[in-house]
Amino acid sequence: xxxxxxxxxxxxxxxxxxxxxxxxxxxxxxxxxxxxxxxxxxxxxxxxxxxxxxxxxxxxxxxxxxxxxxxxxxxxxxxxxxxxxxxxxxxxxxxxxxxxxxxxxxxxxxxxxxxxxxxxxxxxxxxxxxxxxxxxxxxxxxxxxxxxxxx
Length: 151
Known about the structure:
This protein is of the alpha+beta class. The protein has helices at residues 3-12, 21-30, 111-120, 122-145; strands at 32-36, 41-43, 48-49, 51-57, 60-65, 71-77, 82-83, 92-93, 97-100, 104-110. This is Cyclic nucleotide-binding domain-containing protein. GO terms for molecular function: DNA-binding transcription factor activity. Residues 15-118 form the Cyclic nucleotide-binding domain.
C-alpha cells in the first residue's frame, strides 16, 4: 500500500484523529507494515509490549485467559483498531492474545517512533495524553461494571 493509504488509515484511528498530515506522515513513514495470515499470532497475553499495532486489513480475534486457564474469545476487531496503545508510552504487558481471524495486514508502531512524534511535535503530546487518559477511564469503568462476574 502507498504511504498516502497509511496516512488515511492513521487519520481514522481515534488516538491520531486531528493530527495534521505532516504528523501522520511521520508515523506512517516510520511504521512497519506486516502481512498476517489466518491463525497467525500477533502477540500473546502477558508478553512485554514494546509496540502497538493498527489493523489495516482483515480481522483480529482477541483472547483473554479465563479462570480455567482456557483462552476465551473476548472480541474481534477490524481495520482502524489500535491494539496496545499504552505500549506507545511505556513498557506494559499485553492484556490479551491477538490472533488473525483472516489474512490481513497491520501497521506496527514502535514506542521509539511514537516518542519521536512527541519530540518533534510537542503540542501533540497534550492532546494524545488526554485521549489516552480518557481511554483508561473508559476501560476502568468497563472493568468496574464487570466486577460482579469475579466476585
